[in-house]
UniProtKB/TrEMBL annotation:
Keywords: ATP-binding, Nucleotide-binding, Transport. InterPro entries: AAA+_ATPase, ABC_transporter-like_ATP-bd, ABC_transporter-like_CS, MetN_ABC_transporter-like, P-loop_NTPase. This is Phosphonate ABC transporter ATP-binding protein. Residues 2-241 form the ABC transporter domain. GO terms for molecular function: ATP binding; ATP hydrolysis activity. PROSITE patterns: ABC_TRANSPORTER_1, ABC_TRANSPORTER_2. SUPFAM superfamilies: P-loop containing nucleoside triphosphate hydrolases (SSF52540).
Length: 241
């Protein structure tokens, strides 16, 4: 279980809270969709959970471990086991999709592998298995620059899984994609939750959040205004964000 209590984040000289006293608990296999207006704190919440943005207040407990009390080792645990997917994932566009999956990101991979791109044969086979499971086996040896936006998002997910991600934080992962690619990416994330017990937290437009999320969290002015499980939102709830 993951438990966040009293997460608060200030911005600016006057320390205005962009997140205020946020409390969340979530479990393996949940697909949590986060909704809210512009400036509500959605992206900041994901960045705080990924430890890419420093918390000003709050406690962070993962499977019984107090992450902040563990210091550097706690932060390393999160950066290795949690994957943060941005709207436009970074890739070396001159490398193939497979090589980008294998080499990974700096928080997951030894410096020498990042520099040289060298991999072991068992890593190669494992990565190919994951890429095949995501329906992109025929694109594994294409340069990443040749892939569509939806294919790149799936390759980003493959990279996260190959490097052991147990939690995926996805910040508007389908922005700018065509309807078919949107469906492909979100169905993939939903299937990972069901079949692999990966936990997903993703910022989505309301209509997609209702369609794909097992749970919907609404943010407004940096506060959670509802946390709904297993149903669509009421009109009153929609008016809260």
């Amino acid at each position: 279980m993951i438990k966040v209590e009293h997460l608060t984040k200030f911005i600016g000289i006057d320390k205005q809270p962009i997140l205020h006293d946020v409390n969340i608990q979530f479990h393996k296999g949940e697909m949590i969709t986060i909704v809210g207006g512009s400036g509500s704190g959605k992206s900041t919440l994901l960045r705080c959970l990924a430890l890419r943005t420093k918390w000003d207040e709050g406690t962070f407990n993962v499977d019984g471990d107090d992450i902040f009390k563990r210091g550097i080792s706690g932060k390393i645990k999160i950066k290795r086991q949690w994957a943060y997917l941005e709207q436009s994932p970074y890739f070396n566009l001159k490398r193939t999709a497979l090589k980008n999956v294998l080499v990974g990101q700096s928080s997951q991979t030894p410096w020498w592998r990042m520099l040289t791109g060298m991999v072991r044969s068992d890593d190669y086979m494992g990565a190919m298995d994951v890429i095949e499971s995501l329906g992109l086996l025929e694109k594994a040896h294409f340069k990443t620059s040749q892939l569509s936006g939806g294919e790149r998002q799936r390759i980003a997910i493959a990279r996260a899984l190959v490097h052991g991600a147990q939690v995926i934080l996805a910040d508007e992962p389908v922005v700018g994609l065509d309807p078919k690619s949107i469906e492909s990416v979100l169905e993939l994330l939903r299937d990972l939750c069901k079949e692999e017990r990966v936990t997903v937290l993703t910022v989505l437009p309301l209509e997609l959040a209702e369609r794909y999320g097992t749970r919907i969290i609404g943010l407004s002015n940096g506060k959670i205004v509802f946390d709904v499980k297993g149903r669509r939102l009421t009109h009153a709830e929609k008016n809260m964000i």
